[in-house]
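Example complex used in Figure S2.
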Amino acid sequence: MNRISRRSLLAGGVTAAVAAVGSAVTIAGRRFGLVPPDAGGIFAAGNTLNYAAHRLFGRNALAREFPRSMIAEKPFANTIAPPSEAFARHQAEHFANWTLDVRGSVDTPRPLSVHALRGMAVRSQITAVTCEEGWSYVAEWTGTPLSAVLQACGVRPSARYVVYFAADGWMDSIDIDEAMHPQTLVTWGMNGGDLPVAFGGPLRMRVPRQLGYKSVKFIERLLVTDTVADLKISTGVRNYAWYSGI
Amino acid sequence: MTTGHPRFVRITHWLTTIATIALVISGIELIISHPRFYWGEVGNVNTTPVFSIPIPSSRATVPTGYGFTLPDQNGWSRSLHFQSAWIVLFAGVAYLVAGARSGHVGRRLVPARQDRNWRALRASIDEHRPGRLSAPPAPGVYNVLQRTAYLGVLFVLFPFVIWTGLAMSPGFTAVVPWSVTSLGGHQSARTLHFVSMIALVLFTIGHVVMIARAGFRRLMRAMISGHTEAMS
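Predicted assembly (478 residues):
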């Protein structure tokens, strides 16, 4: 076989392979939920590959847990939002009237008090907070698995995402796999005591398989949703990727 | 012996070059948000770093000694970093498959039997000293120092930089915990990732200097168009 025909054969083969892989990926991605909701723009390929790889090979994998000896003596709180007047009032009441309002694709939407959450299933785990900036620390986190909260509210089979809203205006969201994952906690305890305000008290979403920015502090509302539009995602180039397992 | 760079070498070489430049730029940008390096599992501003880079930071929480904070560029930097890493991975796999199937790696990169000793390597290093470098007989024909360096980059440095990068991903280490425990922890992985980036940059500087000394235009043309003309 001469060089030219080998080259054209190779080029044709590569083109066909790329087209085949491309369409297979798109079809499989839609079918099996491997395309992140922010897939768009110039980083669509990379963001989709990250998410798809983790969902294909590690949908049920557990984040690493650590021995008690590794719990940080001085964990790093990072910046916290200046407490608003309303938040300060809640703090003075020891968060007795703080609620997590569960709405959306659930049969019984309702507000859950911190007390009610503590009366549900409890899970403690020693995991790392890993910030996208590069730092990390280990603490023991105690809370109610988000899956238990969702089941108690009658989560519908159509639910695809859970959006969580914080008292300081922050919000983020995770897919239903991450929401039903046993280590995803509506956290109210840290290192044996109440969750301090500096670390997100009274309630913090802890998502240990993803980087710290998914572990939103001061959460007060959950929206269970079937539609991407509710995630309020913008796909600008400067935005942080929605999936942060990497 | 055939000379000149095969097409798959040229394509994967330039894909890797472009992606690696993007990785280094975005990686430096990410370091700016926390220019402190630690050893072991954990590290943060409440713990002692093994070393810090004396630059300003894009986070006010990092004590740098500078009175100002740089703008946060981590959103696009992270996305660019991972997308470029996928390109390096795909180009690397394509290179290894094509390189193994065509015999390229075995024939042109693995040192010839008589060169597999320190004496041959030392002699080759000696030939690269200033004033002594003679141009290669033809593009794509490598001496033993080149072969050793290229094999090291291909089979040691790039795999290690990919491994240490993956070892920082909490989603990845959930699936493959030993990828990070074997390195001594998350912060060790981050520090080793940084060190291996430095090694890659040093290799690249040496590589480009040698190309320049051996005939920049001719060798660049060979790596772009694949021409095989020998030294006139």
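Chain A touches chain B through 44 residues (CB under 8 Å). The beta strands of chain A are 99-104, 110-113, 123-130, 136-145, 161-166, 171-175, 185-190, 193-194, 204-206, 219-225.
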